[in-house]
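I'd like us to work through together how a protein chain folds, taking it slowly. We need material for that, and I hope you will provide a protein of your own picking. Go ahead whenever you are ready, and we will take it from there:
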Amino acid sequence: MTIFSGCEISRRRGEYLRYILEKGGTVRARELAEQFGVDPSTITKAVRDLSSEGLVYHTPYRCISLTDEGEEYAGFLLRRHRILGLVLSRHGLSGEEACSQARQMEASLPRSCVDKMCATLGHPTQGICGEIPHDESCCSGHIRMDGRKSRG
């Protein structure tokens, strides 16, 4: 498992990784550009940078797919979003408000804080916008990002 804080890349690039993960790990550049309302050249540059960081594979004019490290990183980003959204929803925000605010806040929230929040919540498996996967840094005995139980 690669050690990372979750704050290594920009918010927008994190959203790209999360989207790719939620789409099964592979998308086309055109799909990303349309989803995020940006010019294809913006996606090309972002993907080039994500590729140089070892987070995605890119076959020009074909597809963008997550590397193993990219999948792990995107899985953490997904968990961070869902944990933060759950925390916000438990403090009076509607599901939609919590999700929107989580998106605004999450890029500066490091893994150590997410792990503590998750533990405080009792390692929930369901957030306001979907299942919450867990990884080895978060807890033992709970569902990991690969769907297996962690060893404690």
